[in-house]
């Protein structure tokens, strides 16, 4: 359900040459770069990087960084990296230096599949020769840290066989760990929300509503706090609907004054080949305007053009 697909009749060495020519001489042909890169799939872009190196003995990403600037550069360079390396770079930026970008950690680790998490951990090691878990543990604390470590294992159950008994038990355990307890047993929340399959958890949430009379989200808001609360709410949202989670993140990134460009770039790049069509559909229904239009009103220049290409169409 992505908006970006393999380009038919793809020729990596031809594309490498076109990009080389677009950057040759004084100033670069940004339009040509943008058109080419946004109409190739990630797999094809990776092949173009290899062709570029074997034809010109240069690193395409380094050349693009040199030629382009600002948000447009960040977006284009992000598109050139394989998804796991793109995630690794985002997380590296989120934990580097003083302070941590918790929202970025939450977004990536709450929404990725087991396989995507395993690929991310390997890419991080390969790119930075560091251990992702160690870096996250060194940069976070408390229950927030514990839940991130659980998610980093990429061991969420994937079986679709759901046991009704276990559904009832989990719902009861969550209720007893929160609402019915003086204080909160966070470990129960971490164990159930970090490990169970999505299919199973959806039924647990239904059962929870039935026995407690309130949605699990409301209990999480009442029982947990800070980044841990935000992370658990993100996990619940992704379990209910990943597309809806990202539609909401995109809306918040653009609504009001100023745009959270890093969030906008990260989501448009990471979802363009996975579920952009679903995100657009949810966005249209939920906010009564199209994602395309909101991007159009909120951004400008080549940056805007590239984002609109990734969006892939207007739903108004």
Q: In terms of topology, how is this protein built?
A:
Layout: H1 12-23, H2 30-38, H3 42-56, H4 60-67, H5 70-80, H6 83-95, H7 102-111, H8 114-128, H9 132-139, H10 142-152, H11 164-177, H12 186-195, H13 198-212, H14 216-223, H15 226-240, H16 242-254, H17 261-271, H18 276-287, H19 291-298, H20 301-311
Helix pairs in contact: 1-2, 1-3, 2-20, 4-5, 5-17, 5-20, 6-7, 6-8, 7-15, 9-10, 10-12, 10-15, 11-12, 11-13, 14-15, 15-16, 16-17, 16-18, 16-19, 19-20
GO cellular component, one term: mitochondrion
InterPro entries: Annexin, Annexin_repeat, Annexin_repeat_CS, Annexin_sf, ANX6
GO molecular function: calcium channel activity; calcium ion binding; calcium-dependent phospholipid binding; phosphatidylserine binding; phospholipase A2 inhibitor activity
Cα separation of the termini:
19 Å
Shape descriptor: elongated
Indicate the proportion of strand residues: under 5%
- The total count of helices amounts to 20
**How many structurally independent domains?**
4
Overall CATH architecture of the largest domain: Orthogonal Bundle
What is the N-to-C order of secondary-structure elements (H for helix, E for strand)? HHHHHHHHHHHHHHHHHHHH
Structural class: mainly alpha
The Rg value, from CA coordinates, equals: 21 Å
Question: Which residue ranges are poorly predicted, with pLDDT under 50 across at least 5 consecutive positions?
Answer: none
What is the average of the pLDDT values? 94
CATH class of the largest domain: Mainly Alpha
CATH superfamily of the largest domain: Annexin
CATH fold-type name of the largest domain: Annexin V, domain 1
Oligomer: single chain
Number of strands: 0
How would you characterize the largest beta sheet?
none
Question: Helix proportion of residues, in percent?
Answer: over 70%
């Amino acid at each position: 359900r992505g908006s970006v697909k393999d380009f038919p009749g793809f020729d990596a060495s031809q594309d490498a040459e076109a990009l080389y020519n677009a950057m040759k001489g004084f100033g670069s042909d940004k339009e040509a770069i943008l058109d080419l890169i946004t109409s190739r799939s990630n797999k094809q872009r990776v092949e173009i990087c290899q062709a570029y190196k074997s034809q010109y003995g240069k690193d395409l990403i380094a050349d693009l960084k040199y030629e382009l600037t600002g948000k447009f550069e960040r977006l284009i360079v992000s598109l050139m990296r394989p998804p796991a390396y793109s995630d690794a770079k985002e997380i590296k930026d989120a934990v580097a230096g003083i302070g941590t970008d918790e929202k970025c950690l939450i977004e990536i680790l709450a929404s990725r599949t087991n396989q995507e998490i395993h690929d991310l951990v390997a890419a991080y090691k390969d790119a930075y020769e560091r251990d992702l878990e160690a870096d996250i543990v060194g940069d976070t604390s408390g229950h927030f840290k514990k839940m991130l470590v659980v998610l980093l294992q990429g061991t969420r159950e994937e079986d679709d066989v759901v046991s009704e008994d276990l559904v009832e038990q989990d719902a009861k355990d969550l209720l007893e760990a929160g609402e019915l307890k003086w204080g909160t047993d966070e470990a129960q929340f971490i164990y159930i929300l970090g490990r169970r399959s999505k299919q199973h958890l959806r039924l647990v949430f239904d059962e929870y509503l039935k026995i407690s009379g309130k949605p699990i989200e409301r209990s999480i808001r009442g029982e947990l706090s800070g980044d841990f609360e935000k992370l658990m709410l993100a996990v619940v949202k992704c379990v209910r609907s990943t597309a809806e989670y990202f539609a909401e993140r995109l809306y918040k990134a653009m609504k009001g004054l100023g745009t959270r460009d890093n969030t906008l770039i990260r989501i448009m790049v990471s979802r363009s080949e996975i579920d952009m069509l679903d995100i657009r559909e949810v966005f249209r229904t939920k906010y009564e305007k199209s994602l395309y239009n909101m991007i159009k009103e909120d951004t400008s220049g080549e940056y805007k053009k590239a984002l609109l290409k990734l969006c892939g169409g207007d739903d108004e």
